[in-house]
């Protein structure tokens, strides 16, 4: 398996290198022949055509003035209810395109030629996605996966991720958060920031993330770090005291250490806050980084 595939034959179907998870992005460049009537991209459970389980079926159809894209999911060999998108149809017969599919915790985000086109809510567990397939009247020049498989290393030593996209959503570990787990995020703040957040979440997959054990939220206009927890969809009381060590356009290292009574947070090696647990830490399965930052590294040990 390669992280970049050039000029593959169509139909094409191969495993997704490095596995599939939130923040994984697939870039597909190609061209639509002038005679094309339809093509599709599938994210599916196994390599091959006609497989029984397809998590995301993206299917542009060219029917004169009625061009549209069908999105759907197939489970156990049966298609579910389809979604049709006709407005702002982004493909043209006889022209090239770049299709980008970004996986987030609760949905796929699709862009075509640099413009956001649609969102598609997950209907199955993302862990079932093992392969990508392209078929129909289309020519493919390249398929690229980001982060590349070498960028995410998952083993006994923890999780190490380099240059993920923002927002990033990903697992903390097979057993969830443990006492002694250390999470380090190296990031650069945008030049004119409003805020960013690091969340330690109860849920990994699915549209509902009703439990957040730690919401760490630096807000630049007020120069305050807001901390809070979400339980059953309801926020608790905010904590806002303490220093504000972040700077616009600055590169910082945020370290979160899970201790028996609290989450201890350091920024650039200096203690910033202790946040007493409001949740069972073993229920924390994932983390999210979002907002006005560029992420360089995430290490979980």
Kindly report how far apart the N and C termini lie: 28 Å
Beta fraction of the residues?
A: over 45%
Listing every helix as H and every strand as E from the N terminus to the C terminus, the arrangement reads: EEEEEEEEEEEEEEEEEEEEEEEEEE
List low-confidence stretches.
204-208
The gyration radius over C-alpha positions equals 21 Å
What gross morphology would you assign? elongated
| Extended strand count | 26
The mean pLDDT is 90
> Helical content, roughly?
under 10%
Structural class: mainly beta
Q: Helix count, per DSSP?
A: 0
InterPro entries: ConA-like_dom_sf, Galectin-like, Galectin_CRD
Domain Galectin: 12-146, 169-301
Keywords: Lectin, Repeat
GO molecular function: carbohydrate binding
Keywords:
mainly beta; elongated; 7-stranded antiparallel sheet; 301 residues
3D structure, described in words:
This is Galectin. It comes from Acanthaster planci. GO terms for molecular function: carbohydrate binding. InterPro entries: ConA-like_dom_sf, Galectin-like, Galectin_CRD. The chain has strands at residues 4-6, 12-15, 25-31, 39-44, 54-61, 68-75, 78-79, 83-85, 96-103, 107-112, 115-121, 131-136, 139-146, 152-155, 158-162, 168-171, 182-189, 196-201, 212-219, 224-231, 234-235, 251-258, 262-267, 270-276, 286-291, 293-300. The chain is mostly beta strands. Strands 2, 4, 5, 6, 7, 8 and 12 form a 7-stranded antiparallel beta sheet that branches. A hairpin with a 2-residue loop joins strand 23 and strand 24. The radius of gyration is 21 Å and the shape is elongated. The two termini are 28 Å apart.
């Amino acid at each position: 398996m390669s992280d970049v595939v050039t000029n593959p034959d169509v139909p094409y179907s191969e495993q997704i290198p490095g596995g599939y998870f939130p923040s994984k992005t697939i870039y597909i460049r190609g061209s639509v022949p002038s005679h094309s009537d339809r093509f599709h991209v599938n994210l599916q459970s196994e390599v091959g055509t006609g497989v029984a389980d397809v998590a995301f079926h993206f299917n542009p159809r060219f029917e004169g003035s009625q061009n549209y894209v069908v999105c759907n999911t197939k489970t156990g060999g049966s298609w579910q209810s389809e979604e049709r998108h006709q407005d702002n149809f982004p493909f043209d017969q006889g022209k090239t395109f770049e299709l980008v599919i970004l996986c987030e915790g609760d949905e796929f985000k699709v862009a075509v030629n640099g413009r956001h086109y649609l969102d598609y809510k997950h209907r199955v567990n993302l862990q079932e996605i093992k392969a990508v397939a392209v078929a129909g009247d289309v020519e493919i020049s390249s398929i690229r996966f980001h982060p590349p498989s070498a960028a995410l290393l998952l083993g006994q030593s923890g999780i190490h991720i380099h240059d993920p996209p923002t927002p990033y959503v990903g697992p903390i570990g097979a057993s969830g958060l443990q006492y002694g787990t250390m999470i380090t995020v190296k990031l650069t703040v945008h030049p004119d920031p409003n805020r960013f957040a690091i969340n330690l979440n109860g849920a990994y997959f699915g549209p509902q993330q009703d439990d957040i054990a730690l919401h760490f939220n630096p807000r630049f206009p007020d120069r305050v770090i807001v901390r809070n927890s979400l339980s059953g969809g309801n926020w608790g009381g905010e904590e806002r005291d303490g220093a504000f060590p972040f700077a616009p356009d600055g590169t910082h290292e945020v370290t979160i250490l899970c201790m028996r009574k609290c989450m201890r947070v350091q920024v650039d090696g200096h203690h910033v806050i202790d946040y007493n647990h409001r949740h069972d830490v073993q229920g924390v399965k994932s983390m999210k980084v979002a907002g006005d930052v560029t992420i360089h590294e995430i290490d979980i040990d």
